[in-house]
Design goal:
This protein is α+β, with helices and mostly antiparallel strands. It contains 6 helices and 13 strands. The chain has one domain: 4-Layer Sandwich (Deoxyribonuclease I, Chain A), CATH 3.60.10. The strands form 3 sheets. A 6-stranded mixed sheet has the order 3-4-2-1-13-10, with no helix packed on it. Helix 1 packs across helix 2. It is globular. The N terminus and C terminus are likely disordered.
Length: 283
């Protein structure tokens, strides 16, 4: 008989490590860290962890995640602002920058600013030891125009980043790719996000907004810009469940409302057929 189906849960969150109307990261990390540490997640992919201090603050709230994957960037901060925490032992860790995605449209100021941004962003990949699973964590340049059409100046630039993202991911039996893509799911670049169907998107067709509208300019519309994508044989690695997290503000002791981030977190649980289970099933 086939052995019991095992599973892995991966959760992703942009922690908002840049200046914002939110309380300081150290205050918010106490809350989202506690909740994530109490969750059944096996792996956490976090974006916008832009300093060693921020990493230390978050790490202190996640004592049940002993394995940490990141790469040193400028001034020894996490490259790309990307950090992966894991309850499972990890293997090889790599980071690839999007520096080759050169902006070629828009004015000189736009091109110069985004040429710098793209050098600070990329994808972090982490192997989970003994599982044949690769977890990828990414953050793409934000579209500050809020215009997702193919004629917008960000369109070719973000498409170039997506091409680099997909080309940089090594082959694995199962790959789970998550992060803040900064690209609307109802825009023309969505087919590039899922690589023309190569990736399964559990949240496809949903009206989920992953950037809280409270933090958008007046009159702007919220979109799903964060993703959890799965690549691997669907029969062996089915998506068992998926859900958003931190969709509502918490109520602090002083009665004030506080979002833990300007982004919603996403979580997915994917089935695993281990080698042992496969052999039992064919014996």
């Amino acid at each position: 008989m086939t052995g019991e189906l095992a599973a892995i849960r991966v959760t992703t969150l942009n922690v908002c490590g840049l200046p914002s109307p939110l309380p300081p990261l150290a205050e918010r990390a106490t809350e989202f860290g506690r909740r994530l540490d109490e969750s059944d997640a096996d792996v956490l992919n976090l974006q916008e962890v832009w300093s060693r201090r921020s990493l230390a603050v978050i790490r202190a709230q996640l004592p049940s995640f002993p394995y940490i994957a990141c790469r040193r960037g400028l001034i020894a901060r996490p490259a790309g602002g990307l950090v992966t925490f894991s309850r499972r032992p990890i293997g090889a860790v790599t980071y690839r920058s999007f520096r080759r995605a050169t902006p070629r449209h828009g004015g000189l100021t736009f091109q110069a600013r985004n040429a710098i941004n793209t050098r600070l962003q990329g994808v972090l990949t982490t192997e989970l030891s003994g599982l044949g699973v690769l977890v990828a964590n990414t953050h793409l340049t934000a579209n500050k125009d809020g215009d997702w059409s193919s004629t917008n100046r960000y369109f070719p630039f973000q498409r170039a980043q997506l091409e680099l993202l997909h080309a940089s991911l090594p082959r694995a039996t199962l790959t789970i790719l998550t992060g803040d893509f900064n690209i609307a799911s109802d825009g023309p670049l969505y087919s590039e996000i899922v690589h023309d169907g190569a990736w399964r998107d559990p949240f496809t067709g949903s009206d989920l907004v992953t950037y809280h509208p409270e933090f958008l300019p007046p009159g702007a519309t919220g979109h799903r810009i964060d993703y959890v994508l799965v690549s691997g044989d669907e029969a062996r690695h089915p998506v068992l469940d998926y859900a958003p997290l931190f969709t509502e503000p918490m109520i602090r002791a002083d009665g004030r409302r506080m979002y833990v981030s300007d982004h919603v977190a996403l979580t997915v649980r994917v089935g695993l057929h281990t080698a042992r289970q496969t052999h039992e099933g064919t014996g």
